[in-house]
Amino acid sequence: METFPKSPTIGDVARAAGVSPATASRALTGRGAVAPATRARVEYAAAELGYSVDINAASLVTGRSHAIGVVSPSVGRWFFGEVLEGIQEALQQAHYDLVLYHVRRGTASRADVFRYFLGRRRFDGIIVAGLDPDMAEVEQLTQLRLPLVSIGGYDLGTSLVSIDDHAAARVATEHLIQLGHRDIAFVGGDPDGRKSSFGDAKRLAGYREAMAHAGLDELSRHAQSEVSVPGGYQVATGLLGDQRTRPTGIVAVCDEVAIGVVTAAQRLGISVPNELSIVGIDDHEHAEMFGLTTVRQRPHEQGIAAAQLLLERLGDPTLPPERIIEPTALALRASTSAP
Amino acid sequence: METFPKSPTIGDVARAAGVSPATASRALTGRGAVAPATRARVEYAAAELGYSVDINAASLVTGRSHAIGVVSPSVGRWFFGEVLEGIQEALQQAHYDLVLYHVRRGTASRADVFRYFLGRRRFDGIIVAGLDPDMAEVEQLTQLRLPLVSIGGYDLGTSLVSIDDHAAARVATEHLIQLGHRDIAFVGGDPDGRKSSFGDAKRLAGYREAMAHAGLDELSRHAQSEVSVPGGYQVATGLLGDQRTRPTGIVAVCDEVAIGVVTAAQRLGISVPNELSIVGIDDHEHAEMFGLTTVRQRPHEQGIAAAQLLLERLGDPTLPPERIIEPTALALRASTSAP
DNA sequence: CGGAAAAGCGGAAGCGTTTTCATCCCTACG
DNA sequence: CGTAGGGATGAAAACGCTTCCGCTTTTCCG
C-alpha cells in the first residue's frame, strides 16, 4: 500500500496498472470497451492505491455533478424529516449526493440561497419539499433549467409527489360526521396557509367542503394555531375551556396539532373519545401511542418516489412531468367515537 | 439581457466587460488587484449575463469545494434536527454548501457512505453528529485527512462540541436527591450505549455516580428503552404499573423519553409531581408544554459552534483541535417536587 | 525629478477527468 | 487467403476556472 503525499490520481492508477489514463477511466467508469484482464488490473491498482475519483474534475467534463439539491423550510418537523430520509435512501442507492438547503420563510439567508447558492451547478436536479415560494423564487427555480420535483402540495407545473390534502381532510371530517358529530371544529394553520405550508390551506378547504356537503356550513369553524404540538395544545386549551362552546369533534390540520389537542383535553379532564373526538392527518410516529385516529400518509415513501422521479428525469430529460398522488387511508384508533 | 444556449462562462463575462478572463476572475473572486472601475464593469456584465461561477471548475483548480459534509445517524430526532439547522445557519453565512449523509446504524448504505461517498473530495471538511463509529469507520474518517469536528459526545481526538453528559445526568439526579427522593430510576437507552448514542451511556454513568455519592447504590436501577417518546411511554407503562415497586423519581436519558414517561403516568392516573417526579435532559421544544423539569442544552448553538470551528480550520489547517464543552443548566418546571 | 515599488492587467499553464479520434490487432466470413 | 468489422488501447483535446509570471503603467518618496 503505497502512500501518496496527496490523493492518487487516475494517472497514478494507470501507471500502476500499466495502462493509459484513458483505459483506466474506461475500466473504472464502465463506459467503453476494456478487456476483462485489464479491467481487473486497473481495479486492483485503484483499490491498492486507495484511489477515489475527484468528482469535481469528473463533473467538469461530463457536466453532471452526481448530486441533487433539496430545498426545504424545515428539517425538524416529522413530515420533512421523513421525506428527507426517504430521499436519502433512494439517492444513496444511485450513488448520488444530497445537498441540503434550509430556507426558513422570511430569513435573509433564504434570499441568499435563491440568489447565490442555487446557481452554481453543484447539483443536477432539485427537489423542493413543502415550499411555498413567491413569484421571484419560482422564477429563479425555473431559470436553473434543471429537472425539478416538488413534494407536498405546491404545484410548480413540474413533476410532483403529494397526497390529496383536500380529500384527506374531507375523509377525516366525514368520519366524524358519520359517527354523528355535528359541532366539528378545524384546528391549526392560518386561513390562507401563507404562514404555514401550502397543503394546510387545502386541508381546511376539504374540511369546509365536507361540512357544507352535510349541511353543516353554519357550524364550520376554524381555530388558528401554529402547526406544532405546542401550537395545538395552546389553542385547544382555549377552545375546550368553555364547556358551552366546546365542539364534540375536532379535525386537526396534522397529527402534531392533534397530539397537542389530545394532551390539552387530558389536562382539562375531558375524556377522549367519550366527550371529545379527535382525528388527525399524517399517522405521525407518535399517533399510535396517543391512540389517535388519523388519515395515514407515508412521507418516507413520498421522498423515495420524488427521488426516483428525479433520477429518471436526470437519465432522460425529455420525459414529461409526472404527478404522483400518493394514497391515504383512514387509520381507526381510539380517539373517535359517537358523541 | 442576452440569452445563452448554455450558461455563460467567465470568458463571456470577460468579453462583455472588455477584459481578460484573468481579470474577470480577479474582479469576481476579490483575489488580486483590480481597478475599481474595471471591477464595476465586470460585476455589471456578470449580473447582466446572469453569470454564476461553475463551482466544479473552480474547485478543480483551487482544491477547495466550498462545501462541508455532515454525517449523522438521524435527522428526525429533535437533537439532530436542531444541530443540522444550526450548522446550516453558520454555513450559509459563509457561503458554504452542506452535503448530508444519513447513516443509520447497521444499514448497507451506511457502509456505502463510508466506503464510497466520503472519498470523492466533494467537501472540504466534515462534521459528524452523534455518531458512534466502529474502528473501520474511524479509520476511513481519518484517512480523508480533512478537518473534522464531532458533535455530541464521541471523541475522535479531533475538535469537538458537546455538553458534559455525565455532569448533566448527575445534576438531574442530584436535584431529585435534594428534594428528598431515594428510590430513583434511570429510564432509557441500553446499558453500554451501543444501540443508542454514545452520550447516553455517559448519562447513565452520571446518574450512577450521583446515586453512589448519596449512598444509594443499592437503589440504582436502569430501565432500558428505545430513545424516543413511544419508547419512554412503553417502558414507563411497565415500570409504573406495580405500585409496590414504583420509584418516586425518574431521571430520563433525554426529554423525549421523559415526555413518554409523563404521558404514561397521566394515562395511569399517577399524579406528577405529587406521586412521581420526573426530570429530563435536553430542554426539548415540547418540554415547556409538559411542564417538564430538565437540564437544558442548546443543540442549535452547538451546530453553529461546530460549523464555526470547522470553518476556522478550513482557513488555517494548522490550528490545533479545540474541545468546546457547552454549558447546561437545570430548568425547573412542574414535574418535580418532594416525594 | 528620478528611480523604486506597487498596481493593473493579459497570456498561458494547469487542475484531474472523460471522450473523441486514430491506430492496431484479432476474428470471422466470403 | 483477403478483407471487413469490431474490440482494445493510447494520444490528445476539452471542460471552466484560477493563478503564476511577466509586462506596462501609475504612484510614491527621497
TrEMBL record, chains A, B:
GO terms for molecular function: DNA binding. Residues 8-62 form the HTH lacI-type domain. Keywords: DNA-binding, Transcription, Transcription regulation. The keyword Transcription regulation applies. Gene3D superfamilies: 3.40.50.2300, lambda repressor-like DNA-binding domains (1.10.260.40). The keyword DNA-binding applies. It holds the Pfam family Peripla_BP_3. PANTHER family: LACI-RELATED TRANSCRIPTIONAL REPRESSOR, LACTOSE OPERON REPRESSOR. This is LacI family DNA-binding transcriptional regulator. It comes from Leucobacter albus.
